[in-house]
Amino acid sequence: MLVDRWRTALAASGRPVTVLVLLGILLAMVTVLFMTYDLKGSLDFALELRGRKVGGMLLVGFAVAYASVLLHTITNNRILTPSLMGFDALFVLIQTAAAFFFGTLAFLSLDVRLRFGIEVGIMLAFAAVLYRLLFGGENRDLFLLVLAGIITGTVFTSLTALIMRVLDPNEFMTLQDLLFANFSTVNRDLLLVSAAAVVAIVLATRPLLAQLDAVALGREHAINLGVDHRAVVRRCLAAIAVLVSVSTALVGPVAFLGLLVSNMAYQLTGTFRHRYTPAAAGMIAAIALIGGQFLLQEVFASVVRLSVIISFIGGIYFILLLLREAGR
Amino acid sequence: MIELRGVTKRYGPNTVVDGVSLTVPGGGVTALIGPNGAGKSTLLSMIGRLLPLDGGEIRVDGLDVSRTAGDVLARKLSILRQENQVAVRLTVKELVEFGRFPYSRGRLTTEDGRHVEEAIEFLELAEFAARPLNRLSGGQRQRAFIAMVLCQDTDYVLLDEPLNNLDMRHASQTMGLIRRFATELNKTIVIVLHDVNFASYHADRVVAMKDGSIVADGAPGEIITAPWMAEIFDLEVPVHSYADRPVAAYFAIG
Amino acid sequence: MSTHSGPRPASGRIRDTTLLGLALVSLTAVSAWSLFIGVSDIGLSDLLRAEPSKMLLFAVSRVPRLAAILLSGSAMGVVGLIMQSLVRNRFVAPTTAGTVDAASLGLVIAAIWLAGASVFLKMTVAVVFALAGTALFMALVQRLRYADIIVVPLIGIMLGGVIQAAATFLALRYDLLQSLSAWTNGDFSGILRGRYELLYLVGAMTAAAYLFANRFTLAGMGRDVAVNLGVNYLRVLYGGMALAASVAAVVVVVVGGIPFLGLVVPNLVTMTMGDNLRRVLPLTAVSGAFFVLACDIVSRTIRFPYEIPVGTVVGVVGGGLFLALVLRSRFNAG
Question: Which of A263, A322, A325, A328 is most worth mutating to test chain C (most C CB atoms within 10 A of its CB)?
């Protein structure tokens, strides 16, 4: 009986499940390669260091991917990602502003968990403001969302630079390095807090997944089908705020990653169902991050940052996507 | 039964719907007519709780639409607005399946499957069932959305200008289908119509709005008359009789 | 887009002139004031006494700086206006059409492979890249089914992002990241006599744009209207875009990118005065200069005696203004 049901479910949803399995295998392969390639010196130390990096990239990949899928669904489009809306720029701004108000040293000496908690709190407040701004009115306009988001992001970035320069005009670059994380320096405590936050978000949003399928049809259809649209959207925005905090705190802004992997997930799985898309997008993101980092580090031994390559590929993909959607 | 009491909607200084009271008993087709900006679509959206009320009260079978849980209402009433663009890529069948969402939350039972089949059959969409929505013509897509609403199997169905952008054949076929909903499936239908002649032939009752208020309410034969048309649309329209029904010959003026 | 175009009563003309006059007077006043802001204290009396050291500082640093601000500010305002008219989209500007990023990519490439070349040659490379980047943008936009107000600038922004990623890639490999960030973020602190003179070229090009203003307006009404009125549409379109791209590239070479300027200033001006370029171009030039000057004064005084790049200040102020504009347009429309 159970097997039968499973079999029919597989038949009905064959492609998404196959894709998920294949992605899982690929992810496992990339991870093993990253962990074991050319191990030298103290095995324990090397494994711990690499493990931390892999953990960070898995978390970041999933957080970015899930946040993008959620935002796509509640705004009914496939191009608007949290980073396009200035979410990660805001997180960086919050970090800098906190350093400004509390003093750089005092802020950096705060417990990582406490620091992260404060930052997430402010992000949530921002998500609430954003909700009122975007969904408070009766007519929403994608054009405004995207444009206002890009502008806000630029303003946040400029404001961050401004605060840093005012904070310490001579040590601008040092400050930038000190405040902002990257892939090679993943803090252990932060990794644990982030993992806990991501697990909490996944558990909290699981009951929403079926309703999100209906929300993807648009606000009016979702309401007609009995979904409490406001509540779902509000919870999703809160989840997005936490997820973006996680990824930005761990490795800084990774523009375009979310856009790239979510759209690839829609295409590969051939479905919009939220039972499959977040998992697929998350795995694609992790594969891209771990595999990309491996190639850069081990194969090309390059100084070039992964985020630059993601921006390059992501930007081109995005333009192609736009041309295919709106092209003749 | 749908009961409206003192329903009001304002946008800034403009009152779009002004203290409307109306009772629609179960069964039949009730057509809302009136000039552009009269508040018909706004009123319909408020009944379907797509828009919050600024005053008054709306009850459907005794349930206050502003307070009742969304999923309870979704099994009681459905609403279809005129613009139906869906961002995600869905096939016709997938869309129609969403009509069962209020019952099964996305996990279709055998009974849900039966409803889906029936709705697709009723709207003669079987040959397009596996086709993505964006590869349908406007008329076919409109029928797919109507099938979803039908599949939702609610006693009350609210339709906002469902004939918009349909050609003559599709408009008349769709209106005929809607009429069959009411007659064969015993649904209560409230429909906003631009063309008073469709109301004349297919509605049981015509409610005319102007400037946010109801100005006329009665059987088609009573409302589709030259004096009433002049009053509602500010236009002298000759009204003829054809097949025992009034026909407003508005296209012959000018 | 057009709010007040078309024939207007004589009183409108008079109001235009008054407005322009007022703007010019305030620009002159603030310009004069700005000359006396800086680390070294210079008073009016020093000038009157013709104190040699102070006069030298004035001639080598303060005056060139002011000239650079006025020239680049007005030029970027006008360039934004022209691009918005020609592409028929009020959110297109050198920063949202890939132009600025292409110019800085050109500079990176010139710095790598033409390291010893003259500024003029490097500028030429930047201009060529800016032209190519803008042409690519135009080619992409023409592949759109319809020129959606949002998709067009989005394509430009993304194209800019891709080009910038390529530039960053090269900069990382050849250790030019600091130079690149100077080109992408406008800064007047390095402006001295001997380097800003390229901007006079920009001034001349901006003035030339005024001569073609009517043709730009017509092209902005679409191909059909333009052709019907006997304008060579394609020539005006490509000529105008090439002019705009070249001007923007030269500004990038001398000053660096100034975000939002080409978006905010023309939009604010056309919102009150309509889209007839001949009418709005002078005020746009003056407003652009005024805007940059005001931001430059802020950037010099906010953390005195240190200076903050003007691009950063414009990013905050201009971005805030633009956001307000965009949100306002929503309430007007809704």
Answer: A322
